[in-house]
Amino acid sequence: MAGPLQVRGLFPTRILAFDLEPAEAAAFNAYLWAEIDRLLTPRPPAPPGQTWQTHHDLHLKPAFQPFVQLVQACAQRWLEEFRLLKQPLAITGCWGNLNPPGLSHNAHNHPNNLISGVYYVRTGAGADVITFMDPRPQVLQVLPRFTQQTPLNATELNVPSLEGRLVLFPGWLVHGVPSNRGNQERLSIAFNLTPAETA
Fold it and tell me: 181: domain range?
């Protein structure tokens, strides 16, 4: 007779989400939208089927220092959550992604970074998820049917992309953005961090 069931979570992949208060998010997002819209006006050419992006140096611009402060505060919470040594983290890149209706962002990861993240300035119905893929290729060898999709058995999971939400995840985790099925441009700000001593 088997004893009591014991469940262990080995090598977990954690995603952290931080939501600003609605009033704070509305004002902050209006400010960020204006700054990025200015950088992307007139809209530069974009390869067919791809998003518009700013240069990856927003963290160096004075106008984005309030955003940098938010990122750094959330990143320190990440270190606390995983019982990692609190230390200075350097932003290695920070850029705006503007998705017009109909466009997506292909699956990818951010190599050589400890933490990657994204903040949502404008989403809306039809453009309000980010998709994360199972990082273990071996699980695709046998895919049994399930009675209910959960984080314990899925090979892809969508996380809601809410305006005013900042999401942190490991830089190696593959992710993408489905096609924008809404009727307005979707704007997010992506960034990467690594320990300052290795940057």
Answer: 16-40+50-140+153-198
